[in-house]
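User:
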Amino acid sequence: MWNPFSLFKRSRLLSASDKQLLVQAIQNAEKTTSGEIRVFVESHLNKVDALTRAQQIFIKNKMQKTEQRNGVLLYVALEDKKLAVFGDQGIHEKVGDAYWNQQVQIMLSHFKSENYVTGLTEVILAIGEALTSHFPYDRSNDVNELSDEIMVGK
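Assistant: Predicted structure:
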């Protein structure tokens, strides 16, 4: 059976240069929106499903505190081979579950070819476009409400 995560450790998904590429993708995606995007990668889920874990991380990191409730978290559990995308209330009301599920499928399609950073980057940029459509950048009052740094768990 094919395992899209089998080469994560060997591919060093989170090398310093990979992290920098992902941060650049986040910064590019956020240039045209007031929305916020974060990425969290860890080994294990801790006895919950990926979406529940993504929501826990989202809340723990106070991502729901954005002014327009338009934060999005991309979550990857390496050892457990699970992915999720969790969007706050403001953006979720605009795009819905089907959109988030589509983004997970895009990541998985890239992961099959061992293109992990490419998959994450493509989804980051797509989410940036969705955020721009519903929450365009306003130069007069926009601030970067959440760090762009990649979060890494245990």
